[in-house]
Amino acid sequence: MQTLRTPEDRFAELPDFDFQPHYAELDDDEGATLRVAWVEAGPAHADPVLMLHGEPTWSFLYRKMIPIIAAAGYRVICPDLVGFGRSDKPTRLEDHTYARHVEWMRALAFDVLDLHRVTLVGQDWGGLIGLRVAAENPDRFSRIVVANTGLPTGDVSMPEIWWKFREAIQSAPTVDVGRFVESGCRRPMSDEVRAGYDAPFPEDSFSVAARAMPGLVPTSPDDPASDANRRAWAVLAASTTPVLVAFSDGDPITGGMAPIFREHMTGAKGIEHPTIHDAGHFLQEDAGEDLARHIVSFLG
């Protein structure tokens, strides 16, 4: 598997993101290795909070939340998905599969970091991947937070706005990541923050994962990932692991999933689920502090 690696100087002087990166080498599923990055904060031996971003973002998305959750006494771990952030970037669309992304995050969380009593925080693809990892390794997780995400099986049609997003990001001559993120927010974004989202992608050849991920979302019942996601739904729906449903009030892509999680997850029963106000799809960017405080309350 051929990969690209973003030069480290692209990550210098990012606003409010001075966390030192950690790296691990993972099996790339083709006999070689991939370097995967993460940042962390908080007590090293505390219960871990594994926060997974979606596409086309990276761990920079969680910069407002990391200090709040770490200050509450938890070990916060924010990986960069393969193809994003400081992690290596496979150069072919076909290098990216749903199953591979699940396995890469499983391997980092358990083979490298050996995490137990994990609280998952998943948004966008961070939920699609993280919920699979949680369902397939239930003994490692103590809590789950779903935030503007889903676990599609292809049995229900995706909203029209999602199809437009997929077409836009797959057909654009170049992927303007910062602008895509900004378009999924409700609140103004500064030039410096937009540049932070652009940082991992010095040129379009680094953006293959951003183009690939929408095509990996199951959109038909016989999609390669559909059966595994159905099995994950069955496990999670029956599980008593506590689930916090923390969606924003302004996400036309995944907003319809909030009542489904609340109604179908046994672990969501009896929990007060917040709505994050004045926030779009990327609610961590719009209202990260609010989301973090709700998570701390849930953990407590």
Description of the structure:
It is built from ten helices and eleven strands. By secondary structure, it is of the alpha/beta class. The strands form three sheets. A seven-stranded mixed sheet has the order 2-3-5-4-7-8-9, sandwiched between helices. Helix 1 links the parallel strand 4 and strand 5 (75-79). The mean pLDDT is 97.
Shape summary: globular
Uncertain residue ranges: none
Structural class assignment:
alpha/beta
According to CATH, the fold-level topology is: Rossmann fold
Structural topology:
Elements: E1 3-4, E2 22-27, E3 33-41, E4 48-52, H1 66-71, E5 75-79, E6 89-90, H2 98-112, E7 118-122, H3 125-136, E8 141-146, H4 160-171, H5 177-183, H6 191-198, H7 208-216, H8 226-238, E9 243-245, E10 247-248, H9 257-264, E11 275-276, H10 283-299
Parallel strand pairs: 4-5, 4-7, 7-8, 8-9, 10-11
Antiparallel strand pairs: 1-6, 2-3, 3-5
